[in-house]
Structure formats: structure tokens, C-alpha cells
Specification:
The chain contains 16 helices and 24 strands. The strands form seven sheets. A seven-stranded mixed sheet has the order 14-17-18-13-12-20-21, with helices on both faces. Helix 3 packs across helix 7. The protein has helices at 6-17, 66-84, 88-104, 106-117, 121-144, 184-195, 210-221, 236-245, 258-268, 291-301, 323-334, 355-370, 399-402, 418-426, 441-450, 484-490; strands spanning 33-35, 38-40, 47-51, 56-61, 148-150, 162-169, 172-176, 199-203, 229-231, 251-255, 272-276, 281-285, 313-319, 374-377, 381-382, 385-386, 389-392, 409-415, 430-431, 433-437, 455-458, 474-475, 478-479, 492-499. By secondary structure, it is α/β, with parallel strands linked by helices. It starts with 5 loop residues before the first helix and ends in a 6-residue tail after the last strand. Helices cover 39% and strands 21% of the residues. It binds nicotinamide-adenine-dinucleotide (NAD).
Length: 505
């Protein structure tokens, strides 16, 4: 057993964040994994979890060795068999109990999210508050799983025969999640997968495993049997990749970057995929828009969670006649955002997940400015804290308009008319969300039909989601839809049954 001073741990963790070390010591584990119904400190290296604002170690987490992953997969196969015999009413009751348990420790979970991820305490409380209701929606879906009768008598061969479909669980589901909503996005995976009757193995983001692993533990406390719900921690390219490549796994539900999604699909072989990937969402401001409402929504949509949201408003196209007025209204709102310590009540925007990420965002902002964009406000950063930034006159070929930013900056450009706005909004490899502000119903209807994304917002920014709604992208933003009902469908299969009459020859 080796012991290290707190200063030493913090220094190691800072180095890890900068990519020098994947950190790691052997004692003082705070958070365990859940394997085969038991808490486990695993055979992998323990990982330091950093508070992104102070860049200090808040907890150490166990991680899985290849042997632990194998053990979890074996337990999941047994768990899938148990789930196949667990009635819908019992699955729903467990989900209801998990919802109660989350509600009972909501404040603790919110503070954990602030510590591991860096969003403000207000944002973290709103994230946690959505989870019990989401799990109750999943409980309802467990009770509604159903197939249908299938007409077979379109030709003489089918006459007298009865066709049915049964909706059945896929078996073992692997759920892999990103850092930016470490509890809510985990709940969007565990809830529907469990409601559908599957055994689930969670692998939360390496940087933010605490609240997600806690949710897996709460399933066990609520009565989920050993092997039906498990939580592993560790690096994506090792623990995540081993899980995804395994043939016992029938479905992968993944939220994260496009590059990790590509790696998963390449390694996984024949499986079901539910992939929620990256984006650079557009927002169109028509000349007849309510500019105050549009500015208010953009100031929320571009900077919530320091812009670390897949549906963040990133590319804003404004009709020329209202361009100046919109920029003024937006600047007034954004200049009121208070960036700082996410635990402080006055802070309205926290840091990025790491100083390294702030450097990456600075590179994209500098690229836009170098190409001729005007920095209206912000642009600077200190450590992981990036100032809320507006860039105007952003050139079409800048990285800000081509790539995903995942930071607190919004790029704005003037367009001659609505046709140009729609064309530029669609000029992206991604297609997750989009928004338009207009009072003209015909413009809104055209946008709804012509914009190539998964979720369209009329008179709001792309950043809006009700947990009940189907949610997911097209193009390089992913495959399939989340939201309890849609995700349950994605994580089940239809089994077709034909009954033949006694004398059928
Ligand atoms: P990431 O892709 O770096 O990591 C996501 C998860 O994948 C982590 O758990 C990671 O450990 C794991 N992983 C990485 N490589 C892997 C591999 N080869 N095999 C298996 N697992 C692997 O993403 P991130 O930085 O945590 O999150 C930010 C990204 O997530 C952004 O691109 C954002 O747009 C996306 N995101 C999308 C949505 C959506 O709904 N579409 C929602 C939130 C975040």
C-alpha cells in the first residue's frame, strides 16, 4: 500500500488533466463500482476525480481491470435471464423506488455533480430534480410494453393462421455516458433499459463517474437483483471498448463524441446501437423575431453548463435588417453572466471540465478571430474558467462554424434573407437540434420541414428538452432516439409468432 500527501495527489491529478499521467494510487478509495451485486474496488488503477474549478482531488474512484469487465459480463448474462422472469409490475416498482431514493438524496447528488463536473449548484439542482420524474416515466413504459396482432391473410396461405408480435428485451445492454450531465444522461440510459427488461452495465465518463455510479447503486438498494444493474468505471478506450466489443452484449446505448461513437461502432460488430453524438446547433433569427426573447433564449442556450451541452446554440444566423439590434440585445444579456466558483450563489456560469478544454476552446475562438470574426465580448480564459464570449461576423469556413465547440461562445453572422439562413443552418455535418425565432407561421413551417435535424424548436434556442420527448440527431449527430418511450423501443426487439391451424398441410 502506498500513501501520498494531498498536495502530491493534487499535483498528480493536475498532471493527469494535462494528459501526462492517468493517475493513480492505491489507497483511500471513496467510490466503489457495482459488480454482480457487490461493491468492488476493482483490479484497475484508482482514478482521481478533480473539481474542475479548483483543480483539486475531490474523490478517488475504483476502476475495472479486464478481469472485472469479464466478471460483470458473466453476471449480466445471468442478470438478463433474471430480468426475463421479472414481471413488468416489479420492474416498474423498482424504478419508482429509485425515483424516491434519488429525491431523498437530491441535495447530496447535486453537490456531487458540482464537484465532479463544475456546473453551478443551481444547474446541478435542476439536473437532479428532473431524474425522479424521468424514472417514473420509465416505470410507466415498463407497464406499457406490448406487441400487436399481425394480419397474415393477404394471400390464401395465411388464412386461418394467427400472427403476433411480442416486444422482448434485447438481453445485455451496455450504457456509456459523457461528462456533461453526469446524472441525467445516465438516468436516460438506465431507466429505459431496465424498464424494457434488460440487464444493464453502466460505464460513466472517466472524469465524472460519481453521481452515475451512485445511481446504479440506488437501483440495487431499490431491489434490482445482482447482475441486473452494474456500474463499472475506467477509461473509455479500455473498459468501454472491452464491453462494446463483447458478443454477449446485444445493445450499446452511447452518448458522447462523434469520434468515440465511430470507434465503438467499428469495434462492436452486429449489435443494436443508440448513438447520441456531437453537434454544432444553428439558430435562425428572422427579421420579424421578438429580439428580446431571442436574445434571452440565446443567452441561456449558448452558455448553460458553460456551453458544454450537445444542443448548445453555437451558430446564429440573423437577417441583416435586425443584425445590429440582435447583437446589442445579446451582448447586454451575456455581459450579465457571472462566471466563477460554481458553489457560490452569485455564480451563473461555472468552469469548463478542465483547463485543457479551455485551451481547446480558445483555439477555436482564435481561429474565428484570425479569420475576421469580431470578438464582441469575452474571449479570454484563466485555468478552466472561460469568459462568456460572443463572436460576430463569423466566416463560414471558420472552425466555430464547422466543428463542435462545447464551450461558452456563440458565433453570429448576418444573412441576406431566410433562404440564406436555412442554407447556412443546414451546412453542417451534424444534425441534432435547431431553433428559429419568427412570428410568421409559414416561415416556421418551412423551417420545420427543411432543416435537417432531429429536434426543431420554434421560438426558442436549440437548448430545450423535456425528458418525455423523443430526442436524438441525424447525420453525424447519431442514430436512434432517446426519451423513455423511444429508448424502450430501441432497447427491445420484436419477436414474431405464427399460430397454425391443426390441419395445416
Ligand atoms: P467522449 O466521447 O470523450 O466520452 C464519452 C464516453 O465514451 C465516456 O464514458 C468515455 O470514457 C467513453 N469512451 C471513449 N472512447 C471510447 C471507446 N473507444 N470505447 C468505448 N467507450 C469510449 O465524450 P465527452 O467528452 O465525455 O462528452 C462530450 C461529447 O458528448 C460531445 O461531443 C457532446 O456533443 C456529446 N454529447 C452528446 C449528447 C447528445 O444527446 N447527442 C448529449 C451530451 C453529450
Amino acid at each position: 500500500m502506498t500513501y501520498y500527501s494531498v498536495q502530491c495527489l493534487n499535483e498528480l491529478a493536475r498532471l493527469a488533466r494535462r494528459g501526462f499521467v492517468i493517475a493513480i494510487w492505491e489507497s483511500g478509495l471513496d467510490m466503489q463500482m457495482l459488480i454482480a451485486g457487490e461493491e468492488s474496488s476493482g483490479g484497475g488503477p484508482a482514478v482521481a476525480i478533480l473539481d474542475p474549478f479548483h483543480e483539486e482531488v475531490v474523490e478517488t474512484v475504483a476502476s475495472a481491470s479486464p478481469g472485472d469487465v469479464e466478471r460483470a459480463l458473466n453476471a449480466a448474462v445471468a442478470g438478463a435471464a433474471l430480468m426475463a422472469r421479472t414481471p413488468a409490475g416489479e420492474r416498474a416498482a423498482i424504478l419508482e423506488r429509485v425515483a424516491d431514493l434519488v429525491a431523498a438524496e437530491a441535495e447530496e447528488l447535486a453537490r456531487t455533480i458540482v464537484q465532479e463536473q463544475g456546473k453551478t449548484l443551481g444547474e446541478a439542482r435542476r439536473e437532479v430534480d428532473r431524474v425522479p420524474a424521468l424514472l417514473r416515466l420509465c416505470a410507466g413504459e415498463a407497464l406499457r410494453l406490448s406487441g400487436e396482432t399481425v394480419p397474415l391473410d393477404q394471400g390464401p396461405d395465411g388464412v386461418g393462421r394467427l400472427g403476433l408480435t411480442l416486444r422482448v428485451p434485447v438481453g445485455v445492454v451496455v450504457a456509456i455516458t459523457p461528462f456533461n450531465y453526469p446524472l441525467l444522461l445516465v438516468a436516460h440510459k438506465l431507466g429505459p433499459a431496465f424498464a424494457a427488461g434488460n440487464a444493464v452495465i453502466l460505464k460513466p465518463a472517466t472524469e465524472t463517474p460519481l453521481s452515475g455510479l451512485r445511481l446504479a447503486q440506488l437501483f440495487a438498494e431499490a431491489g434490482a437483483q445482482a447482475g441486473t444493474m452494474q456500474g463499472l468505471a475506467g477509461a473509455g478506450p479500455s473498459v468501454g471498448a472491452q464491453l462494446c466489443a463483447d458478443d454477449r452484449v446485444r445493445a450499446i446505448t452511447f452518448t458522447g463524441s462523434e469520434s468515440a461513437g465511430q470507434a465503438i461502432v467499428a469495434a462492436a460488430g452486429v449489435k443494436h446501437f443508440l448513438l447520441e453524438l456531437g453537434a454544432n446547433c444553428p439558430l435562425v433569427i428572422a427579421a420579424d423575431a421578438d429580439l428580446e426573447q431571442a436574445a434571452a433564449a440565446t443567452a441561456i442556450g449558448g452558455y448553460s453548463n458553460a456551453g458544454q451541452a450537445c444542443i448548445s446554440a453555437q451558430r446564429v444566423f440573423v437577417e441583416q435588417s435586425v443584425y445590429g439590434d440582435f447583437l446589442d440585445a445579446l451582448t447586454e444579456r451575456v455581459s450579465k453572466i457571472v462566471a466563477g466558483d460554481p458553489m457560490m450563489a452569485e455564480t451563473t456560469m461555472g468552469p469548463l471540465i478542465s483547463a485543457q478544454e479551455a485551451e481547446r476552446v480558445a483555439g477555436i475562438v482564435a481561429d474565428a478571430a484570425g479569420g475576421g470574426a469580431r470578438v464582441v465580448c469575452g474571449g479570454e480564459h484563466s485555468g478552466s474558467l472561460f469568459a462568456p464570449t460572443i463572436l460576430a461576423d463569423v466566416p463560414a469556413d471558420s472552425r466555430l462554424f464547422r466543428e463542435e465547440l462545447f464551450g461558452p461562445a456563440v458565433g453570429v453572422a448576418a444573412v441576406d434573407d431566410i433562404d440564406e439562413a436555412f442554407a447556412r443552418a443546414n451546412a453542417s455535418a451534424y444534425g441534432l437540434g435547431a431553433g428559429i425565432f419568427t412570428k410568421n407561421v409559414h416561415t416556421a413551417l418551412r423551417f420545420m420541414r427543411e432543416i435537417d435535424v432531429g429536434v426543431v424548436q420554434v421560438n426558442w434556442s436549440p437548448l430545450w428538452r423535456a425528458d418525455s420527448m423523443p430526442y436524438g440527431g441525424v447525420k453525424r449527430s447519431g442514430i436512434g432516439k432517446e426519451g423513455p418511450r423511444a429508448a424502450v423501443e430501441e432497447l427491445t426487439e420484436l419477436k414474431t409468432v405464427v399460430f397454425h391451424p391443426p390441419a395445416s398441410l
